[in-house]
Specification:
The relative contact order is 0.09. The protein has 3 domains: 36 residues; 207 residues, P-loop containing nucleotide triphosphate hydrolases (Rossmann fold, 3-Layer(aba) Sandwich); 171 residues, Ribosomal Protein S5, domain 2, CATH 3.30.230. The protein is an alpha/beta fold. The radius of gyration is 26 Å and the shape is globular. The protein is 25% helix and 27% strand. It has a 9-stranded mixed beta sheet, sandwiched between helices. It has a 7-stranded mixed beta sheet with strand order 17-18-16-15-19-22-23. It binds thymidine-5'-diphosphate and magnesium ion. The site of magnesium ion (MG) has 4 residues, from helix 2.
Length: 453
C-alpha cells in the first residue's frame, strides 16, 4: 500500500480539525485561523495488531492521593495547588523576557538536590545557562543541561539520563525532523508536545514546558496544546515594573483561581508573601481619582489601587481601561451617568489598576466607580478609605462573598474606613478601628465619601 500522505487543517483558536481549507473555521467561526497539518507516517495512528489495550476496573485502581513535591518556591507551589504533581505535564506561558526561564531555573536550585533534572534549552547555550545559574545561585548537583532543538535527540537524552524532572525551554524551538514544517509551526508544536507527553506519562516524569505567547496573549500554537497538558500557567506582568503574577488557566490537580506573586530582583525572582503591601506602596496621598479595592484571588484577599482620570473630551470621548474589563468599565460609567448623577459620558475616561493586576471580580466595581467619581469631582477620597461592592445596573450596591475576610485584610493594612454594601450575606464581625460605611446605592456611596464639607 502506498504511504498516503494525509492533510488536515487545524484551527489555532478552537483546535478543531477539518479536511479542507476554508477562510473561516467551520467550528468556531474565527477567520484565517486554519493551518495545514500533514500527517506523514500513515497518520501516525496505526496500532500494533498484536497488542489489545486492556481496560482496568476502576474499583481496583489505587486511589491514593497524587504524589506531590515542593518546587522550593512557595508561590509556585501555591499556583500548582500545593506543589508539583509527580508525572504531570505543566505548560508555562508568558511574554518574552517576563521570567519563565528564570522561574524554572530557580526551581532547579531547590529541587536539584533531591531529584535529577534535565534542563533542555533551545534558546540559550550551555554556557549561557551556566552563567545565569551562577547569577541565580543555582548549584544543583543533579542538574543536567542540554542545548538542543531536535526532538529525537531530546527524547533520547531523557531516556538515557532517566531524570525525575524534564524542562523544555521552549516548545516553539523544538522540532521533529520528520516533519517538513518549520519549528514553532502548529504542526511541529502539536507533534512535539504529543511525543513529550508520551515520554512524560510512560516514565512518570514531571515535565515543565515553556510556551511563548502570541499577540492575543494565549500560548502560540493550537488550543489543543492546552487540552493535552495537565496544567497551563501564565506568567504575566509588565516588563517595565518588577511585579510578576503567575496564574493558572487550567489545573487538573487544583484550583485555577490561585495566583502567585513575584518580584523580579537582580538575583532572580522573589516570592511576595504580602502582595497588598507591595501593590499599595507609593500610593498618592490626598489626590483625586484613586480608590482601594479588595479582591479575592484564590484563597487570599488582595488589595489593589484603582486609578481613574476623567477629563472633558476635546474631541470624541475616549475610553481606555487597563486591569478592568473594558465592557465592565463602560457599564460602570453608564451607571454613574444615569444613577450617580455625574455627566461622565461626554468625558475622556482612563482607568488603570496599579501593578499590572487584573481585577476580574465584580467586588471591585464600587472602588472603580468611586475612583471615577473622585476624579470627575476633583475631590480626593482620603488615604484611609477602601471600598467593596458589586454594582448593579440600577446603581444598587450588591453584596459580595467573603466580606469578613476582605475587611480583616483592609484593617490589617491600616485602613480606617470602608464603604460596604448595605445588605450583606454573611454576618459581619466588627473590627476595632475600622469604620464601616454601608451604602444602598452608588449615589449614597458618593454622598458618604465625596460630599463637600
Ligand atoms: P527570562 O527568564 O530570560 O525570561 P523568559 O524566559 O520569560 O523570556 O528573564 C529575562 C528578564 O529577567 C531579563 O529582562 C532580565 C530579567 N532578570 C532580572 O531582572 N534578574 C535576574 O536575576 C535575571 C536572571 C533576569
Ligand atoms: Mg527564556
Amino acid at each position: 500500500m502506498a504511504n498516503k500522505q494525509k492533510t488536515v487543517y487545524i484551527c489555532s483558536e478552537c483546535g478543531s480539525e477539518t479536511p479542507n481549507w476554508a477562510g473561516k473555521c467551520p467550528s468556531c467561526g474565527a477567520w484565517n485561523t486554519l493551518a495545514e497539518l500533514r500527517l506523514d507516517k500513515a497518520g501516525g495512528r496505526a496500532r500494533d495488531p498484536g497488542r489489545t489495550p486492556k481496560a482496568k476496573k476502576l474499583a481496583d485502581l489505587d486511589s491514593a492521593e497524587e504524589i506531590r513535591f515542593s518546587t522550593g518556591i512557595s508561590e509556585f507551589d501555591r499556583v500548582l495547588g500545593g506543589g508539583a504533581v509527580c508525572g504531570s505535564l505543566v505548560l508555562v506561558g508568558g511574554a518574552p523576557g517576563i521570567g519563565k526561564s528564570t522561574l524554572l531555573l530557580q526551581m532547579c536550585a531547590a529541587s536539584g538536590r533531591e531529584r535529577r533534572i534535565l534542563y533542555v534549552s533551545g534558546e540559550e547555550s550551555e554556557r549561557q545557562l551556566k552563567l545565569r545559574a551562577d547569577r541565580l545561585g543555582v548549584y544543583g548537583g543533579e542538574l543536567y543541561v542540554l542545548a538542543e532543538t531536535d526532538l529525537d535527540s531530546i527524547l533520547a537524552a531523557a531516556e538515557s539520563l532517566k531524570p525525575d524532572i524534564v524542562i523544555i525551554d521552549s516548545i516553539q524551538t523544538v522540532s521533529n525532523g520528520d516533519l517538513s514544517s518549520a519549528p514553532g509551526s502548529i504542526t511541529q508544536v502539536r507533534e512535539c508536545t504529543m511525543r513529550i507527553m508520551r515520554l512524560c506519562k510512560e516514565n512518570s516524569l514531571t515535565t515543565f514546558v515553556v510556551g511563548h505567547i502570541n499577540k492575543e496573549g494565549s500560548i502560540a500554537g493550537p488550543k489543543v496544546l492546552e487540552h493535552m497538558v495537565d496544567c497551563v500557567l501564565y506568567f504575566e506582568g509588565e516588563r517595565s515594573t518588577s511585579f510578576r503574577i503567575l496564574r493558572a488557566a487550567k489545573n487538573r490537580f487544583g484550583s485555577t483561581n490561585e495566583i502567585g506573586v513575584f518580584e523580579m530582583a537582580d538575583n532572580g525572582l522573589r516570592c511576595v508573601e504580602n502582595p497588598s503591601e507591595m501593590l499599595l506602596s507609593g500610593r498618592p496621598v490626598n489626590s483625586p481619582g484613586t480608590c482601594v479595592a479588595c479582591v479575592i484571588e484564590g484563597t487570599r484577599p488582595i488589595l489593589a489601587e484603582v486609578q481613574a482620570l476623567v477629563t472633558p473630551a476635546a474631541y470624541n470621548a475616549a475610553r481606555r481601561s487597563n486591569g478592568v474589563d473594558y465592557n465592565r468599565a463602560a457599564m460602570l460609567l453608564a451607571v454613574l451617568e444615569k444613577r450617580g448623577g455625574l455627566s461622565v459620558a461626554g468625558c475622556d475616561s482612563y482607568i488603570n489598576v496599579i501593578g499590572g493586576l487584573t481585577l476580574e471580580e465584580p467586588a471591585a466595581d464600587l472602588a472603580t466607580s468611586l475612583a471615577i467619581a473622585s476624579s470627575y469631582l476633583d475631590r480626593p477620597l482620603g488615604a484611609d478609605l477602601a471600598a467593596i461592592g458589586e454594582i448593579g445596573l440600577s446603581g444598587e450596591i450588591r453584596s459580595v462573598s467573603a466580606l469578613n475576610q476582605r475587611l480583616s485584610e483592609i484593617s490589617r493594612l491600616g485602613f480606617k474606613r470602608c464603604v460596604i454594601p448595605a445588605h450583606w450575606r454573611d454576618e459581619i464581625r466588627p473590627i476595632a478601628g475600622l469604620q464601616l460605611l454601608p451604602a444602598q446605592n452608588i449615589s449614597e456611596a458618593i454622598a458618604a465619601v465625596l460630599a463637600r464639607e
